[in-house]
């Protein structure tokens, strides 16, 4: 377990022995030390590609019509309620509230024929997160089972979820349902996502013995990390590579990856969604609306970029508020789309532009999806209900073939008219991006069901 100690009289860690400083990381693995764990993790990297996946999960069920398939040729009660916007791809339009992503359509691949047929929130969310695989484990946990719980070079968790609360205590009351997208199914709980907002089994044993009040003071906390790092750097010249690496997890990796203040002010502003929130009338009428405000989404996506850049292999970002039935005191499409859509448009476009500028576009795959779509026909309350026969799905980057629309919906945007895409193909696309599948077939140290699920998945052929 990580035991970093300090006190008011010895802020530079004087009095802490080298032996105690190296008690880093029990990880809940029966006393296995983090240095040894990192050494073992290196044994599992031959099939792991230098790639990462970020899933932007739009919780509640994003409408396929108002996002990437506006179908303005359909009858009025089916077409996108807010109209359409031209994209950078000839003849292709997105929903009108996605102008920034529309300009990046040539860097994206939009799937207009994804279906799984499940219309209940919990089961559908678990199904999509798992890519429909029979183990029930989400794709991120499957990846961690192959790649290791931590990155062997940086020690950061390979499977991390970023909910609004991860970006600061001011976002702690915003809605998120992380358990719907982090199930480990038949895999051990150790492969569950590291929840960066409140810790997980990976770091729950971390102990920072700091003066009262220091933990709540982010700047003071980071100063303590810096002071400890300088002291340790002078003390560990004779330690093993993995012992030094274990130190860096705490003293460099964690503190830096989650520190958004290190970003350029222009980058922070480009991602910023802090001004996008439901209007006062909506929040007065609907007590839930405030919880759905996507004010943290930009920071979540920026944190996701920092995490994959630091070596995290799989990051899930959640954005709620997409359950827009309409009517009464419910969060309607006219309440939600003018709020959720612009936030996703800003945050996702900033992420795509950012990874392009930082040379990460071929390495990092962004996936935008939710648990299901919405009914193609607008209901009597002016909203759309649950619909599993056509769902929102889009990709960007990852070295895949971008600048295309895969499949087509029928006239009423209710089901695929061509090239139906399954959840198994979603799983296959993600796993073929992250892993060397032919070499994985030769591995003999994986559970048979995990190996069979991954190697048997089929990627979307148009993207490979």
Task: Provide structural commentary.
- By secondary structure, this protein is an alpha/beta fold.
- The protein has 2 domains: 84 residues, no CATH class; 356 residues, Alkaline Phosphatase, subunit A.
- Helix content is 33%, strand content 14%.
- The chain contains 16 helices and 16 strands.
- The strands form 5 sheets. An 8-stranded mixed β-sheet has the order 7-6-9-2-10-13-5-14, sandwiched between helices. A two-stranded parallel ribbon has the order 1-8. A two-stranded antiparallel ribbon has the order 3-4.
- β3 and β4 form a beta hairpin.
- It is globular and about 55 Å long.
- The two termini are 42 Å apart.
- 53% of the residues are buried.
Strand arrangement within the widest β-sheet reads 7-6-9-2-10-13-5-14
Main structural class: alpha/beta
Overall pLDDT confidence: 83
Judging from the principal axes of the Cα atoms, what is the shape? globular
Task: Summarize the biggest pleated sheet.
Answer: 8 strands, mixed
Count of β-strands: 16
CATH superfamily of the largest domain: Alkaline Phosphatase, subunit A
CATH topology assignment of the largest domain = Alkaline Phosphatase, subunit A
Helical stretch count? 16
Instruction: Give the helix proportion (percent range).
Output: 25-40%
Beta content comes to 5-15%
The CATH architecture term of the largest domain is 3-Layer(aba) Sandwich
CATH class of the largest domain reads Alpha Beta
User: Rg to the nearest angstrom?
Assistant: 23 Å
Poorly predicted runs: 1-34, 38-43, 199-212
**Head-to-tail CA distance between termini:** 42 Å
How many separate structural domains?
2
């Amino acid at each position: 377990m990580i035991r970093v100690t300090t006190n008011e009289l010895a802020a530079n860690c004087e009095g802490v022995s080298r032996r105690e400083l190296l008690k880093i990381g029990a990880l809940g693995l029966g006393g296995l030390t983090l240095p040894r764990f990192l050494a073992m993790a290196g044994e599992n990297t031959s099939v792991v590609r230098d790639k990462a996946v970020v899933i932007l999960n739009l919780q509640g069920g994003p409408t396929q019509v108002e996002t990437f398939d506006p179908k303005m040729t359909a009858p009025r009660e089916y077409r996108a309620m807010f109209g359409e916007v031209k994209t950078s791809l000839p003849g292709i339009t997105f929903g009108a509230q996605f102008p920034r992503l529309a300009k990046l359509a040539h860097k994206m691949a939009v799937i207009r024929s994804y279906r799984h047929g499940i219309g209940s929130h919990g089961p559908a969310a678990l199904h999509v997160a798992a890519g429909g695989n029979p183990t029930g484990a989400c794709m991120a946990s499957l990846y961690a089972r192959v790649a290791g719980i931590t990155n062997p070079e940086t020690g950061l968790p390979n499977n991390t979820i970023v909910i609004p609360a991860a970006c600061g205590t001011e976002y702690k009351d915003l809605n998120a349902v992380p358990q719907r997208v982090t199930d480990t199914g038949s895999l051990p709980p150790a492969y569950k996502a590291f929840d960066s907002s409140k810790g997980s089994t990976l770091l729950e044993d971390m102990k920072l013995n700091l003066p009262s009040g220091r933990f709540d003071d982010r700047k003071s906390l980071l100063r303590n990390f810096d002071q400890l790092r300088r002291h340790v750097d002078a003390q560990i010249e004779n330690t093993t590579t993995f012992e030094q690496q274990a130190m860096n997890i705490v003293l460099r990796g964690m503190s830096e990856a989650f520190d958004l203040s290190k970003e350029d002010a222009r980058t922070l502003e480009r991602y910023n969604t802090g001004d996008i929130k439901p209007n006062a009338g909506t929040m007065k009428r609907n007590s839930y609306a405030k919880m759905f405000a996507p004010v943290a989404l930009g920071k979540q996506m920026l944190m996701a970029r920092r995490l994959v850049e630091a070596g995290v292999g799989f990051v899930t970002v959640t954005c709620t508020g997409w359950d827009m039935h309409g009517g009464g005191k419910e969060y309607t499409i006219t309440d939600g789309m003018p709020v959720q859509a612009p936030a996703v448009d800003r945050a996702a476009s900033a992420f795509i532009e950012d990874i392009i500028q930082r040379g990460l576009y071929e390495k990092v795959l962004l996936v935008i999806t939710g648990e299901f779509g919405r009914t193609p026909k607008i209901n009597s309350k002016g909203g759309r209900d649950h619909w599993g026969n056509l769902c929102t799905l889009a990709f960007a980057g990852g070295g895949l073939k971008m600048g295309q629309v895969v499949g087509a919906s029928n006239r009423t945007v209710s089901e695929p008219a061509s090239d139906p895409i399954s959840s198994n193909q979603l799983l296959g696309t993600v796993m073929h991006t992250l892993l060397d599948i032919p070499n994985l077939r030769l591995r003999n140290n994986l559970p048979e069901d995990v190996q069979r699920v991954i190697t048997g998945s089929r990627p979307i052929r148009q993207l490979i």
